[in-house]
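Here is an idea for our session: we take a single protein and study its fold together. To get us started, please write out a protein record for me. Once you have written the record down, we can walk along the chain together.
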Amino acid sequence: MIQVLHPGAVSLAQLESIWREGLDARLDTSCREPVDAAAAVVRKAAEGEEAVYGVNTGFGKLASVKIPTDQTAQLQRNLILSHCCGVGEALDVDTTRLMMVLKLISLGRGASGVRWDIIQLIEDMLAQKVTPVVPVKGSVGASGDLAPLAHMAAVMIGEGEAVYQGNVMSGNAALQAAGLSPVILGPKEGLALINGTQFSTACALVGLWNAWTNLQSAVVTGALSTDAIMGSTAPLVADIHTLRGHAGQIEVAQAQRALMDGSEIRESHREGDMRVQDPYCIRCQPQVTGAAMDLLRFAGRTLEVEANAVTDNPLVLVAENRIVSGGNFHAEPVGFAADQIAVAIAEIGAIAQRRVALMVDPTLSFDLPPFLTPEPGLNSGLMIAEVTTAALMSENKHLANPCTTDSTPTSANQEDHVSMAAHAARRLGTMNDNLSMILGVEALCGAQGIAFRAPLTTSVPLQHAIRRLRETVPALEADRYLAPDLQSAAELIQNGTLVKAAGLSLPLECAS
């Protein structure tokens, strides 16, 4: 299936479908006219005597060096090869393809000055599944994601490495095997390919989508925990949240009311319960998870704008028939969005970890056995599973520290303030993995705790969630080798299986 894209109006949902389903993407044919018009402006500038940055000059600190017309093609090739300085492991194929799609969208706005041939090759590489090998480290998130995008562009000129049919091979070999040919870059085309925020934005988008799946899972696991400790649903009353007015808080409270509706466990202690209030990790779930929901949506709107943006330099203003240098390559908006996502991930995990600690502690769990094991003492139950969640929570707290405040000058002080958006976005992968594990352990604890409340039963939606969990991870009767169980539970969180089983669906994109 091919996703047809209209640059400037591509939605988060379209991009997520491309990423999750491995869809191919092409620009709407209406893009060709403005693309060709911008290319003509660049071609005219390249043939002139006036020095135009990125067209017939050096780059960065070398912008004052004029390049002869007959060397402009070599200039662009040299630019790509010299900037292939990425290090570290390769970016995964799905995120790399998303990065390529984002580059397509940016070039398709008709302000980058590339020929249609460049766009065509990216589209064909997506269609033929030729995926550049892109090392994840090397970008500081200003002057574009230079090193990562250079590794993408290298394959387009027959250099670098690519994955084709599951094998890593030279870029040239991959193109040939797919029936494609490398391009010879024209004026400004190399710069247009490597200037931009597409690596950072792709990584941030993946972090956002995985964080959203985790957030929805937290709504479910939080409801399981509430019933397991026989917590009150009074703090979920709609009027409380309407009086405060935050959309996410209202939505989380509504979702948890629906998830717990009809629980026999809840009904059993409405009267005569000596506890006046539950701890904050139970009582304040809508306030914390809801605030994280609002933050993720805010970051999502920023990233949607960025996904549709032109972020290379210089830009071709066709209507004015001129080429203008600017700074759209600076990824500060992406860095801020990634930092916001990181804070949300850390806080969802922090409050979930406290719910895990609550359930394994017999002094706080309202008569559940210590560490949720039928024979405490002989068995340690989920004692160390809780410790693991504490370790992961702590790691996420450290990783949540802002990256955008850590600028450092580069390129002989020409690029003297940078965003660090690339590793701000990359670290979201680790944080989401940690959060999925925390929530997986919470699901195990919640299901175990609810089982101890028999013959009372939980609500139908939560029964469905527990039943799905138990298809993969059996109840803990006696101590066993737990690591595989924790991993299996985390995978049910990561892929949204537990959320689907509970019948929950909270949209990332909303009308507001």
